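For concreteness, we quote verbatim a single protein encoded this way:
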Amino acid sequence: MDVLPGAAFDTASTVASSCTGITGTTKVLLCYALNSGTYPVSGTNRQMGSGANRLLFQAYVDAGRSINWGTTGTALLKVILTATAPSAPTSYYGRVAAGQPAAVPAAYSTTMTVTVSGTSYTGATPTCPTASLATFTFNVTGTVISSCNATTTNMVFPSTSFFTGNIDGTSTVRVTCTNTTPYHVRLSGGNAAATNPALRKMSLGANQITYGLYRDTPRSLGWGSTDSTDTLDATGTASAITHTVYGRIPPQVPVPPGTYSDTVVVTVSFL
């Protein structure tokens, strides 16, 4: 599950029920009560866990996911078996709650205990009895994956006619990654495929201007595409982090006037 967008995740499963020896007009009512699971309830949600981390979810008895599966009354999952239909699958529904972008990427789980009660009857359907016939358990699992997204702004250097001193500019890379996810921001060598971050090229036809991109204000740390060497490295917080790209055109031979440009590809790699 990619939780960064904050959406809910839905799933469904079934409980298989069967009963032998039903005859005539006799029916069997089976009622399934569900406990809170391994972890305590949080508000209106159950919880899955991974170490100290938690992921909120809920189980429901209806497809509209409006009735939490619980232990009494309408919250019970129910099935009626008859002589002509002595077995039946009964659907139940799950939802990982929306609004959990800060969930830590991990495999989450909890163990649920179901208590079964039931009775045979004819005529009107009775209420579920309280006496337990049996119990069984099942696991609820979900995996939050690492995820990142990024947006950028363009770098526009000040206009100039001469290159007698440094000409500086800035732009930004805004990165959002899942909580605790380490990531690297790579900048390509541009259209000239420069391998040295300080020797990229802006072009206008056959004419070129040399420039560099850096990770620091003094423009001493080149920004390239080799992870943990000349990339910008950080850790996700589930919120957007703005990284400044520092550009510099060093002194060089003047070129014909015009608008020079380059295209740099930004890649965010993560574990």
